[in-house]
Design a protein that fits this description.
CATH class: Alpha Beta
Strand content: 15-25%
Structural class: alpha/beta
Length: about 280
Amino acid sequence: MVNYKLCAFADEADKALAGQIRAMQENGIEYLEMRGVNGINVAKLTAAEAKSAAAELKAGGIKVWSLGSPAGKTPITDPFDFEQEQFKRLLETADITGAKCIRLFSFYGTDGKAAYRDEVMARLSRFVELAKGSGVILCHENEKGIYGDNAARCLEIHRLVPELKGVFDPANFVQCEQDTLEAWDMLEPYIYYGHIKDANKEGKVVPPGKGEGNLPTYLKRFFAKGCEVLTLEPHLTKFVGLAALENDDVPQSVADWSFKSNREAFDFATNTLKKMLEEL
């Protein structure tokens, strides 16, 4: 049995924070990757809303591990002012909630072209500059359609902006036709925590371990490195906020798994992951 800390995007269980807390308590999950709070994206929370959420989470015995932010999920050709102001608000929310990390991305619209490399790195470096002194760890997630959607460009990001850590998402690599174990071997020195999401050959999201993400082998390597925190991100049903997470050109595809509710899908994914971890 491995030692791990289980975290979750609990907005996939319930739109309401109270329902998220209940789902986490009943599934034995102590850590939250905060993304949607009562239907509001974490990047749009006011200080008052963040304080209210923090108090509710504390009362429920839930700790905020990371902010599942949308930072860097805009076209690289858009002006950067909006992103910078949004990021300042995210840093304030991280401080209020006690979040250790902020998840971020490396911009849409680049088609992976080297011509955009300097601008991508400049914007990521600006995030690092804004976060300096906050104590918050910035973690880049591989995401389909952004500059860092394959292992080679993720490696480039970590080498050119070494302050950034990585959050490893197997399903997103599968959807980019990137072998997950090859990606792990390339990025292992930079990975800080992991997402648990799987996808099949067609790129459709499936329960953990049912796809091409090589999750059992990935998890063994993850724990061998000394990593502990895994964020469950089932994506098995349509939930409030999913549409806002998708880039119009690269939609998330959910496979044909039938669940009566978001909560049922969340419980199923949690139990599937726990069984997998017990077998390691």
